[in-house]
Amino acid sequence: MSELIWINGEIMPLGDARIGVEDRGFQFADGVYEVVRIYNGKAFTLDAHLQRLAKSAESIEIKLPVSGTQLRGEIVKFIARNPLADGMIYLQLTRGAAPRNHAFPDCKPTLLFYARALDPLGDPAKSQGVRLITVTDERWKRCWIKSIALLPNVLAKNKALAAGADEAVFIDDGVVTECSSSNIFIIRGRRLLTHAVGPKVLPGITRAVLLELAPTTGLSVGEESFSEDEAIHADEVFITSTTREISWVLQWNQIPIGSGKCGPHTLALHEALRKRIAAETA
Amino acid sequence: MSELIWINGEIMPLGDARIGVEDRGFQFADGVYEVVRIYNGKAFTLDAHLQRLAKSAESIEIKLPVSGTQLRGEIVKFIARNPLADGMIYLQLTRGAAPRNHAFPDCKPTLLFYARALDPLGDPAKSQGVRLITVTDERWKRCWIKSIALLPNVLAKNKALAAGADEAVFIDDGVVTECSSSNIFIIRGRRLLTHAVGPKVLPGITRAVLLELAPTTGLSVGEESFSEDEAIHADEVFITSTTREISWVLQWNQIPIGSGKCGPHTLALHEALRKRIAAETA
Which of A117, A128, A198, B222 lies 20 to 30 Å (CA to CA) from residue B139? Predict the structure, then answer.
């Protein structure tokens, strides 16, 4: 079955959907996006994603062309039409199309979303560790906005891949901020640390769920910054995102991290996350 | 006559041209662009623009799908088809369309350009001054790449417009870098200063032409940084871009600059630029 897209209220095959050359998403990165995970034919943490979308859009003064409730309804209907066992919704909102000019035009925003199947992630206890490399954080200072101005992230990710690693960690003035498409956590003893949300850190939804679940697994949490050296010497390090859930870190700049396998706290957190997912998408 | 576009080798009405939703220019700001001025049916400084395009593309590892010579030939033919007295070519190159993933895909780049008529700029001696406001430079650190990740520039420009000004000046750690869509210069005595090209400053083509022409008008030039306070107390301040040429600055954060009219050195520079334009596009 070919992939479908909802675009400005119409549903069509994804391959047939087209946007105009002067859409500001194409010429100015003037837009925001969300990626929502589907499990068992249901969207996980959909409301949290839609709340973040509303905040991102408001911060760059784009008005959603439908109400949040209507958008939620459209997404739920869309997913029900083709209930994927494992998948995601990619959603994008741009300021719309108008003759090219930096000034905000008076035009109708472009809103679209489509679903895509993903491979199931499998048993957390058998998951593979990831390799990180460090890159300088050269991004702008409003990374809390989930904008489509992702070129710096794309370049960082590909630097990691070219080095034989899986993900790039941004270091800003000596401090670990986040990765090119994931948040990063370290565990020291029974303490779970991650950088506070702000200029250099996106409020990841998986990040928020884990900060909520951590105390139930015996960890205390701190939204505190840490250096690369502190991270490399932590007991456990992991990264999170909507599509990857949790990936434990095996190496950082080719230095082995922790025990060389998925640490017990990371595993407990992943199991708690899976329970939350199962409960919400049963 | 409706506007035309050249897109991946085909010419069609601009309004008919469409790009795919998964073009990386739309989802990742994964592309670069140029704006070239047309005078008297001819492109001004076309080679300099194409050289900069090649550098921008190389820096983010996008390969032009045609040779520079071929592209130049296509642009010249396109302009000749509808020779605008005053206009511009907007050109954009993206990595192309592929299923969304930060990793560089194996796909064909999207290359397009279109022409648009512009109002003639009129006599420099009768030009209007512009009003500037200061904004914090929150952009990424590779502004020398002319990328389409322009959201920070769009937000800065609109902050200026909302404040009743025309353009926003970025200040990075106390230093004046450039504006949201223009380079900035100050004149003190017989010295012309502008920030060096680099992490926070685009190598503007009009900027380069003026640095070359300045000595012929009796000015010495320095690619040196200066503070907002130094700029506000300069004898003359002006901004430059391909579409605006030179605009003298009347006010900065509502403070009057210089004499309240276009200064003599700025005027002499603008006249020298006009001569260069006339010579190249006769």
Answer: B222
